[in-house]
Structures are given as structure tokens and as C-alpha cells.
Amino acid sequence: MVRILGEGNSVLNQFIAEVRDEQVQKDSLRFRRNLERIGEVFAYELSKELSYQKRQIQTPLGVAEVSTPSDELVLGVILRAGLPLHQGMLNFFDKAENAFISAYRKYSKDGTFKIQFEHLSCPSLEGKVLVIVDPMLATGASMVLAYKAMLERGTPSHTHIVTIIASREGVEYTRKNMPQKNVTIWAGAVDDELTVKSYIVPGLGDAGDLAYGSKM
Hints:
Order of helices and strands: EHHEEEHEEEEHEHEEEH
CATH class: Alpha Beta
Strand content: 35-45%
Largest sheet: 8 strands, mixed
Oligomer: single chain
CATH topology: Rossmann fold
Structural class: alpha/beta
Distance between the termini: 38 Å
CATH architecture: 3-Layer(aba) Sandwich
Number of helices: 6
């Protein structure tokens, strides 16, 4: 299942407009904060898909019955660009466990690249709801690689992929290489073009560099 939140009218589109805007991007603090705010919107929308149970809450004046989420969540983030998006979701899912994945593009002299996977820090996933966040879903290769590596920690009951900007090619690759029945892809927007160097157009540029500065 693929859900594109930017197709509806909401304040999310203002945040997406700002992270795309090359003038607004000059303020890295603003860029990171917008990624975080987008993460909060995704968390709210995703929360509607979780399981809930009723609880009796003692107030100073009586007892209130409230339905609260009952799923155990693990929030996974692909470093480094995903950190602000991850923090936005963690602001809402503050009881979630967390996982950190180091994966990046390793370029050859001819301009081609392969996804280099280096490190995974992850709790048990058995029977839990897994959420993997990455601001950009270009080819989808790093997302699929991260997901398969995380399965060594157990089988989640459901997996949610959260990205701000995806390419259609990346969405299709992810759908074809991950289970169809228990995976949901959430995107702010899906762009049609992916360049020969696998950059999304119009996209927004390099989210990691915009958030934290250029790499060496």
C-alpha cells in the first residue's frame, strides 16, 4: 500500500514547499526543523493505523476511559539525513524503541555507485511495528537493504516506510522487493524523474548536506 499525504490539502504541503525551496534551504536550522515537523505530521497520520486498547485513567475527579496505542513500535532511521525526520516521529511516539542504520552511496570513478552498508543498532523486532524513515526514496536500494538487514532482529508484524520525497522508480522497486501484505509506504510527494546519477527531479537536493553541511 502506498499513501501520498501531499495529494491532500493540509499544512504538510507548506512544510514540503519550504524544504524544496532553494532560498529557504539556505537556513539549515529551518531545513532541519521542517524535516522534524514533517515527521510529526507523518507520525499523527500513521498513528491512525495502529492497534488500540481502552484504558481506565484516574483523574483528580474520577475515572476516564481512553483508547491508547497498544503496538510496540521501533523507529528505524537511515543515517544521517533521516535524523530530523526521525526526531519528529519520536516527538509523538516517545515510548518507541529505536534503530540506527548506516548506509550510503559508494561511488566509483565512472560515476556508478553501490549501496554500502556499515552498521546496524537495533532491538528485537519480533511481533513489533517497524517504522523506517529516510527523507528521500530515490532508487529504493538503500531502503530495501536496510529492511533486509533488520530482519535479522526478528519479523515485525507490520512495516511502515516513511519518506518525504520519492521517485516513482524508487516506490516501485521498494514495492517489488518487500512484502506486499504487511508493508505500507508513506510519502509526502512522488516525483516522476530519476536522473542517471539517481537524483530525484525536481526533488530537493541532498537532504543530508542541507541539514548538516557538505560531506568531505
